[in-house]
Amino acid sequence: MVFLHLFIVNKSGGLIHHRPLSARAPKISTNEWLRIGSTFHSLHAIAAEASPLRLPNGKNASGADDGIERIVAGGMELRCLQTVTGIKFVITAEPGGTVDLDSVLREIYVLYAECVCKDPFYELEMPIRSELFTQAVDALIDRVERLGHTSMSKHR
After folding, report:
1. What distances in angstroms separate CA 146 from CA 2, 30, 63, 99, one per listed residue?
2. How far is the CA of 152 from the CAs of 9, 108, 130, 143, in angstroms?
3. Which long-range contacts (CB under 8 A, 24 or more apart) does 39-46 make?
4. How many CB atoms lie within 10 A of CB 82?
5. Residue 137 in this model has a pLDDT that exceeds 90
6. Which residues contact 96 (CB under 8 A, 6 or more apart)?
7. For 59-70, what is each residue's pLDDT tens digit?
């Protein structure tokens, strides 16, 4: 599976992290990423309100608000993991792979908690500028592309 992009949106709709995950990822400027982040946040909220089906208490299995979890298009697949705190982790990849993107997102969330949230200089809701987080995500993506699974899905 070829991963394309990772972006993280805070609970207010602000883009706090974005990066390409492969050389095949389309080149997107920072201003375009800011628009993508806020637009996705808005569409996520609209989807939660417009859905004819309601999850119990409007929450998904992880306790986060209902909304967009997956979009499949001709040239890419998008997956979103929204945390209980409202942060959205979004990954795009070329369609047709066998990797469980939800497991990849959950592992990226763990890396965020370990590398970013434990940094005493990081302020919540602010852009993520952690080299440790970047290196950890790179290592995860390399491992998944090489082995075809995350360490989390391996132990299921």
Report:
1. 11, 29, 32, 11
2. 23, 11, 23, 12
3. 40/7, 40/9, 40/68, 40/80, 40/88, 40/90, 41/9, 41/12, 41/13, 41/88, 42/13, 43/68, 44/68, 44/80, 44/82, 44/88
4. 26
5. yes
6. 1
7. 555 555 678 889
How confident is the model over 135-156, as a mean pLDDT? 76
pTM of the model: 0.86
Long-range contacts of 61-67 (CB under 8 A, 24+ apart): none
Structure tokens at 81: 């993991």
Tokens of 39: 């637009």
Q: Report the range of poorest mean pLDDT among 41-45, 132-136, 147-151.
A: 147-151
Residues 6 or more apart from 51 whose CB is under 8 A from it? 66
Q: Which are the contacts of 149, defined by CB distance < 8 A and separation ≥ 6?
A: 99, 100, 103
pLDDT per residue over 76-94, tens digit each? 999 999 998 889 999 999 9
